[in-house]
Amino acid sequence: MSLDEARLHELLQKQQAGQVKAKDRYEIPSQPMPAQDAVVRRSNINEVALGYTETQARLEAMRCLQCKNAPCVEGCPVRIRIRDFVAAIADGKYDEALAIIRENSLLPAVCGRVCPQEVQCQETCTVGRKFKDVDKSVSIGRLERFVADRHKGGLLPKIAPPTGKKVAIIGSGPGGIVCAADTRRAGHDVTVFEAFHKPGGVMVYGIPEFRLPKAIVQEEIDVLKKMGVKIVCNFIVGRTRTIGDLMKEDGFDAVYVGVGAGLPRFMGIEGEQLVGVYSANEYLTRSNLMRAYAFGKGSDTPIAQSKRVAVVGGGNVAMDAARTAVRLGAEKVYLVYRRSEKEMPARVEEVHHAKEEGIEFHILQNPKRILGNEMGHVVGIECLRYELGEPDDSGRRRPVPIDGSEFMLDVDTVIVAIGNGANPLIQQTTPELEFNKWGNVIVDEKCATSMKGVYAGGDIVLGAATVILAMGQGRIAAAAINEYLAKG
Amino acid sequence: MSYKIVSKQQLSENVFTIEVEAPLIARARKAGQFVIVGVSNEYGERIPLTIAGAEPVKGTIRLIFQRVGKTTTQMADMNVGDSFGHVAGPLGKPTHVQKFGTVVCVGGGIGNAPLLPIAQAMKQAGNTILSILGSRNKELLILEEEFKIISDELIIVTDDGSYGRKAMVTEPLKELCRRNPKPDLVVAIGPTIMMKFCCETTRPMQIPTVVSLNTIMVDGTGMCGGCRVEVGGKTKFVCVDGPEFDGHQVDFDQMMKRMTAYRKLEQQALDAYQEHRCKIGLDQR
Ligand SMILES: Cc1cc2nc3c(=O)[nH]c(=O)nc-3n(C[C@H](O)[C@H](O)[C@H](O)COP(=O)(O)OP(=O)(O)OC[C@H]3O[C@@H](n4cnc5c(N)ncnc54)[C@H](O)[C@@H]3O)c2cc1C
Ligand SMILES: Cc1cc2nc3c(=O)[nH]c(=O)nc-3n(C[C@H](O)[C@H](O)[C@H](O)COP(=O)(O)OP(=O)(O)OC[C@H]3O[C@@H](n4cnc5c(N)ncnc54)[C@H](O)[C@@H]3O)c2cc1C
Ligand code: SF4
Ligand code: SF4
Ligand code: FES
Fold first, then answer.
1. Radius of gyration for chain B, computed over Cα atoms and rounded to the nearest angstrom
2. A-chain residues near B254 (CB < 8 A)
């Protein structure tokens, strides 16, 4: 018996005797996530975080105090009954734990991996509060992943008898997947339309394999198919058919718009058209969806063969791009971010992993222009140093450039990861829909748009958000659609 | 959806035309739009091709492509009955078609393929069509018959003089532009360098000139920015803002540089494929 197993055994015996005190729970060390070695993983695309062992999961679950008011639940956007599912894990009842999670989240294997837990469920956890360190909170996300991974294939939910109503889901991201599942469960005839040749949205073309294995997303898609949801790829709503066509000619009674935020922002600086300058979307799509990492080994999607890369930005997208560049063979990868590390919107775990993999952080710096050679290829970027000034609208201290602080970074590739705007295609082709000035669809609290029978959610409504928020909106919209269709 | 090839023809040494099953696209497409195709769903490259024609009733679209690299070579090896992994579209903004008066249509090489539906639509809108088609030699000239039908005047030029006039397309273009009255619009589609020089020809005479850009693309829906070009000092995405632009505003030099981004890798992919073809005996067919 290993030390951990012995410890768990002892705790369980105490538990049975009803003798486990809060003090005992505080003494259980926070369980580290087993991970691929930082050097080894630089040259493969396999998942970095390997997942808890059963012993680790139960030990971690034992750290939960089972708080009466369960403040963690408030921190979760979809209000998973965290306290209860954690208790089930401590008891070794993993299927029960999964069933509890599934009441509120259809994609636990995904959310357990990619939720920014430290600013959601784990931020408010009593254990973390006690240690004044959010890293010491109960690792709710990892536990969620543990139970989801143990139960591969998912449970097929019951499906109500056919209602004869047709629902169109536009976009197969997390919002679309959940909305499809929930409307299908109500017995409607559901079709998902996806522009790309593979369903899954950002989970497939954006978030890399080493963070979210594509097989997991594929499984969720397979569940949808088994439920009888039709998935039509290579179908660009607005071009192949418009929302109007779908409703007026093709007989769809309700529509969910979940097309994501797919319009990359550039910086508008000199040199952005040079060869070697990518949007993170392009870089990640080439390497993930189109498997440029396997160039010459089955794939023929080309991608820059970079030696020195600068990634601009500080979010998850920037971390993913930087870590992908490492895996594609870059010797030096810089991450250039204009605020301080504290303000970085990326998940803490990703920042940590990125550093372990040797990515060099250049904080409080920002590119001023990109320099090229006579062939039009990138040879470097000129950056400016910044300092933090007064807080801005977002409450974060505004970075201000320091005059005369220019310096050069020697790079052959620049990846711009400063966010996405809304793709205007739906707006241009659906005059009845109302949008705000940033091009996001305007919805009410039930995710209903200005157009009858049309609902929307996810990044196209929220701007760039998170998987769990998109999922939550997909759920709300599905409930509203089911209600709307029950009436008419 | 099966995206099956229902007919195939070789138009010249390296140019092929195929009809592909894609009923929804056949119904929705307009002149000037394109599709993104992939030979395989798993590993394939996604490449843009103009919809050269469509038969909505039959549910097919016509593509005309030139064998230049790995993917187009692979396509040339496909036969009737074979299917594409994916075909998505129609993409891009349709051509702005109206009665302008006299429209000069300039096509170079494979550019004749995207030019044809535009010329046809312009003709239908009541314009006088003056066509100039250029190619390196007689063998490489495509779609002459189709253009003959819709053109009020058709000028053919070849680089080596093996057919028509021995000249570059810009020579007859200059002559047509000097006519009185001046043409009202020029549409030029072909190699980037040709489009650039056509624009230089029409600029001093201030004749509006539309070009269709063929930048490298990934998604074709505005998501990646890979297709961007500078037009009038602003960044534009060819797949959603184009593919047609006011040629006098396009930064062609920069665009040409961007198009060389993957030259080495493309060659590598092609070489590997050629070798594979030899091994499995495809080249014997
Ligand atoms: C690189 C990257 C890393 C990220 N990391 C994280 C993370 O760690 N944690 C986290 O919570 N969030 C992360 N996010 C954000 C998260 O992925 C998104 O918030 C979420 O995926 C949005 O979901 P959605 O339902 O709006 O649809 P999306 O996932 O955006 O998918 C939309 C789908 O619609 C399709 N589509 C678009 N237009 C059309 C059309 N006209 N017709 C048909 N289909 C169309 C698109 O092709 C796409 O497949 C990350 C995002 C990126 C890009
Ligand atoms: C809107 C549009 C319409 C087009 N219509 C036609 C057409 O009707 N017929 C035709 O023959 N060609 C057309 N092209 C060009 C065609 O897409 C390229 O020839 C094709 O991608 C080459 O692929 P390959 O793998 O065979 O060659 P590669 O070896 O990959 O490349 C050969 C050349 O093609 C260009 N190219 C490579 N990849 C792409 C890509 N993903 N997108 C665009 N260009 C690329 C590069 O500049 C390269 O120099 C069009 C391009 C665009 C953007
Ligand atoms: S869904 Fe996300 S926020 Fe909610 S409990 Fe799971 S990891 Fe935490
Ligand atoms: S707040 Fe933390 S300790 Fe309390 S119930 Fe939630 S997970 Fe358990
Ligand atoms: S091809 Fe990706 S934005 Fe145009």
1. 19
2. 273, 376
- The kind and range of the H/E element at A426 are helix A425-429
Q: Which atom of ligand 1 lies nearest, measured to the CA of A468?
A: 11
Domain shared by B82 and B117, yes or no: no
Minimum mean pLDDT range among A5-9, A95-99, A432-436: A5-9
Domain boundary among A399, A418, A437: A418
Provide the 3-class DSSP secondary structure of residue B272: helix
Average the pLDDT over A413-431 and give the result: 91
Kindly give, in sequence order, each residue whose CB lies less than 8 Å from that of residue A121, ignoring residues fewer than 6 positions away: A72, A73, A75, A76, A80, A82, A115, A140, A141
pLDDT tens per residue across span A154-206: 567 889 999 999 999 999 999 999 999 999 999 999 999 999 989 999 998 89
Which ipTM score applies to this complex? 0.88
Say yes or no: B202 and B113 in one domain.
Answer: yes
CATH number at residue B190: 3.40.50.80
C-alpha span between B265 and B260 (Å, rounded): 10
| pLDDT tens digit sequence for A473-484 | 999 999 999 999
The verdict on residue A131 lying in a domain is yes
Q: In whole angstroms, what is the distance from residue A275 CA to residue A379 CA?
A: 10
Phi-psi region of B264 (alpha: psi -120 to 50; beta: other; left: phi over 0): alpha
Atom number, ligand 4, closest to the C-alpha of residue A66: 5
Residue A147 burial by Cβ neighbours in a 10 Å radius (0-12, 13-18, 19+): buried
> Could you tell me the two tokens for A52?
């808890």
Of A279, A294, A375, the CB nearest to B224: A279
Residue in A268, A304, A425 nearest the CB of B221: A425
Handedness of CA B275, B281, B284, B285 (dihedral sign): negative
CA gap A207, A280 in Å, rounded? 11
A278 touches chain B (CB under 8 A): yes
Closest chain B residue to A417 measured between Cα atoms? B224
SS3 B157: strand
Range 328-347 of A in CB contact (< 8 A) with B: none
pLDDT one-digit tens code per residue, B25-73: 999 999 899 999 998 877 667 899 999 999 999 999 999 999 988 889 9
A157 within a domain of the structure (yes/no): no
- Tally of domains within chain A: 3
Residue bearing tokens 């790309």:
A196
Co-location of A146 and A182 in the same domain: no
User: What's residue A103's pLDDT?
Assistant: 86
- Domain region containing B62: 3-91
Residues A470 and A369 in one domain: no
Chains A, B: CB contacts under 8 A, how many?
A: 130
Q: What pLDDT is recorded for position B283?
A: 53
Is B227 inside a domain boundary?
no
For residue A233, give its domain range. 166-262+421-486
**Ligand 5 centroid distance, CA of A440 (Å):** 20
- Name every chain B residue with its beta carbon within 8 A of the beta carbon of A233: 86, 88
A200 touches A212 (CB < 8 A): no
Q: How far is the CA of B122 from the centre of ligand 3 (A)?
A: 57
Chain B CB within 8 Å of residue A413 CB:
no
The per-residue pLDDT for B246 is: 94
Q: Is pLDDT of A16 > 70?
A: yes
A371 CA to chain B: closest CA distance, Å?
A: 14
How far apart CA B213 and CA B255 sit, in angstroms, is: 9
pTM (2 decimals)? 0.90
A273 interaction partners in chain B (CB closer than 8 Å): 228-230, 235, 251, 254, 258
**Total tally of structural domains belonging to chain B:** 2
Nearest to A302 among B85, B90, B265 (CB): B265
Residue B67 CA to its chain's centroid (Å): 13
CB atoms within 10 A of CB A96: 16
